[in-house]
Amino acid sequence: MVDKSFKVTTRTVSGKKTRFLRREGVTPAHLFGQGLTSVAVQCPTGDLKRAIALKGTTRLMDLRLDDEKETRSVFIREVQRDALSGELVHVDFYQVNKKQKIRVAVPLVLVGDAPAAKLKNNIIEQLLSEVEVESLPGELPPHIEVDISPLAEANQALCVSDINAGSGVTIMATPEQLIVKVSTIAEEQGAIATSTESAEAGKAPAGATKGEKSEKK
Questions:
Q1: Nearest to 137 by CA among 91, 74, 93, 63
Q2: For the whole model, what pTM was predicted?
Q3: CA 134 to each of CA 35, 130, 159, 166: distance values in angstroms, whole numbers, following the listed order
Q4: How far apart are CA 131 and CA 138, in angstroms?
Q5: 165 lies in a domain?
């Protein structure tokens, strides 16, 4: 039987010295969780990249620390990358109890074709990119699909109450919160023009202050 758990080892190097680990193809990380003392760990960068690509931050994975017989159920909680190179700098693993519900922000993915998008001057605006949900770790969806095919006319919208996260998953956001809407380019341009005109109207004409001063003299 192939061991499909993700393996990490206890890390003894810390601080600025971790740069030497990265040069050797090893990424420093931390393992923490509710009621768990944080543990400094490390893992091969190549293996970690594959795990991130496969699991993301919303899929449960089995992690094995050193030579422990039992695996730990974890999520990849936070991924830090170098701002310039994009290379991995540090990762946090969050250990969970499979029998206890957790709250996690899950991405919203738009699917389907909106008839309204084919009409002139219409644009589809996504106002909410993720939503917080509560569920058991094993039932957490990697993402929630939002079908935009019902959007056929301008000003139509979909809100949180229009989506289904699946059995055992509770969406914590306000039901009336908008996810996506159909706007028109003309409306957007009109709003910008109105805002600009209002700003210009509030400005005093050039030289007015000087003129007032000369009269007082």
A1: 74
A2: 0.72
A3: 19, 13, 18, 11
A4: 18
A5: yes
User: What is the residue range of 31's domain?
Assistant: 6-95
List residues bridging with 63 in a β-sheet.
6, 72
**Structure tokens that stand for 128 in this block:** 């909410």
Strands 102-111 and 144-147: parallel
The Cα 105–Cα 94 span in angstroms is 14
CATH number (domain holding residue 67): 2.40.240.10
Mean pLDDT for the chain? Answer: 86
Span 44-89, pLDDT tens digits: 999 999 999 999 888 999 999 999 999 999 999 899 999 999 999 9
In a domain, 11, yes or no: yes
Tell me how many domains the chain contains.
2
| Contacts for 42-50: CB closer than 8 Å, 24+ residues apart | 42/8, 42/9, 42/10, 42/11, 42/13, 43/6, 43/7, 43/8, 43/9, 45/88, 47/6, 47/7, 48/88, 48/91, 49/88
Which of 95, 121, 141 corresponds to the end of one domain?
95
Q: Which tokens in the block code for residue 52? A: 């991130």
Selected residue with higher pLDDT from 118 and 202: 118
